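Subgroup meeting minutes
Present: P.N., E.W., G.H.
Scribe: E.W.

1. P.N. recapped why we're keeping a running log of single-chain structure predictions: easier to compare across weeks, and new members can see raw inputs and outputs side by side.
2. G.H. added today's entry (293 aa).
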Amino acid sequence: MRRIVIAALVLALGSLACSDGDASIAADGTGSDTSADPASPPGSDTLYQGTFTVLESPDHGPQLCTSVAQSYPPQCSGPDVDSWDWSTVDAESANGTTWGHYAVTGTWDGDSLTLTKAPSEPDRDDRAPSDTEFPTPCDPPADGWTVTDPETATVEGREAATDYAQAQSDFGGLWVDRSFDPDTDVHPIAGVILNVQFTGDLERHESELRERFGGPVCVSRSEHTEAELRAIQQSTYEEIDDAHYASTDIVRGVVEIGVFVTDPTVQAALDEEHGAGVVELVPALHPVDGEPQ
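Output recorded in log:
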């Protein structure tokens, strides 16, 4: 992680440092005690596993890919994979590029993965996308999630409510919940709950939304505005050296940063800087069961 966040952690923990400064870390990441450097790779002897596309091209050797350009042959870049042997796996090849999708196990030194066992076919579950849930935090009304005003319970009405919400300075996020099973024969718009979050006056915002949209609406409180979360997403992505993606989960109010291995000291620095749980490091490599984290 770039030193700006590490420096913040050092400042936060300054009261715990030894008076002679042996355990301190300079803002540029140097220090006399390298074992205390949060940037050191977490447990280089630890075995990690993950599922990746591995690709070798005329430009580079075998590398782990977390995203792949859908060209032919495909293109991607990522950390090197040491001890890779294409003769031990099934793979596709075209125009000097070789690739395949594999479950891999090895040690991680912060820059590359060194295999400790032969790669294998991934479990089918590893290829399946995870279920995405968009729950409604409000309790159902006494008469259920019903249409309150048929004249504005329209797509246009929902768009007007959306435009209003997104124009507010305390707007926290918006999504629709299709998980319940209403009687859509009554009204076609009844099959969707419009969820909107704000950090400010919920009663006022709900009144404004219902003037514009007569379908099911849930208004709830968020800890941060969407703009705040997007700004945290951008700045944190730029601060973390090995970040390979960043996204904002509006439903949970969390910024997710994709990394290859989670460093607990980096996560602690993020919690100190932004608040516990606001930024979540999401690892692509996980410790093998029984291995220390």
